[in-house]
Amino acid sequence: MTKPTLLFAPASPFVRKVLVLLRHTGQLDSVNVEEVQLTPNTPSQRVNSRNPAGKIPALCLPDGSTLHDSRVILDYFDHQHSGQPLIPRSGPQRWQQLTLASLADAIADAAILIRYETFLRPEELRSPEWLNSQQNKIERALQQFEQEAASGLSQSVNIATLSLGCALGYLDLRLPTLNWRERFPQLADWYSQFSQHPEMLATQPPI
User: Fold this and answer.
1) Which phi and psi (to 5°) does residue 15 adopt?
2) Which has fewest Cβ within 10 Å: 75, 111, 122, 175?
3) Please, what sign has the CA dihedral across residues 73, 28, 8, 10?
4) What positions does the domain GST N-terminal occupy (predicted)?
């Protein structure tokens, strides 16, 4: 039986979310993974041919169709296993977890934009105001998650926690000078435990 193919880059926090779910639900062997190299300045024709937006992850299905956006791919794989769903199917918990996952994705989005601005754009063309606005997004989101951690953020793997864990991992990878742990100690305590899940350890991006 032909397997779907996941187009990925190891450092992407959005790809990592999918890999965490695949490992957690025992589906990793049912998927082919294909690494692609791309930046905003050097797009991948392989990715563009499957996702017109040119973004990863993209999941190429055996029937020739493609799923893209990590949340869509996570939802797809969460329906392919018989264990406890990582995305609640209904009720208030579903909307709460999806909202937290969206906020975690906003952290990753802002961190990626900061990375692009500081790594790809010449220094004389960088906008301090724009960079500050992205960092403020991260700070506000981290403050919200600090409150969530104080009220008992789950240590179980679900759509909210895996999204947050991967976003915080990306901050450590690309923006270590933020020193977010100093300002958000309860969130730091939560992450120190959550990051030890086997699927988180196995998907740590290369330095």
Assistant:
1) -65, -40
2) 122
3) positive
4) 2-85
Q: Where are the extended beta strands (E) located within the chain?
A: 5-8, 32-35, 58-60, 66-68
Q: Apex CA 129: angle with CA 125 and CA 131, to 5°?
A: 75
Q: What share of the chain is helix, strand, coil (3-state, %, to 5)?
A: 60, 10, 35
Long-range Cβ contact pairs of 71-77 (< 8 A, separation 24 or more): 71/101, 71/105, 73/6, 73/18, 74/17, 74/18, 74/21, 74/159, 77/18, 77/21, 77/22, 77/25, 77/27
Q: State the Cα–Cα distance between residues 72 and 57, nearest whole angstrom.
A: 10
Q: List pLDDT tens digits, range 77-124.
A: 999 999 999 999 999 999 999 999 999 999 999 999 999 899 888 888
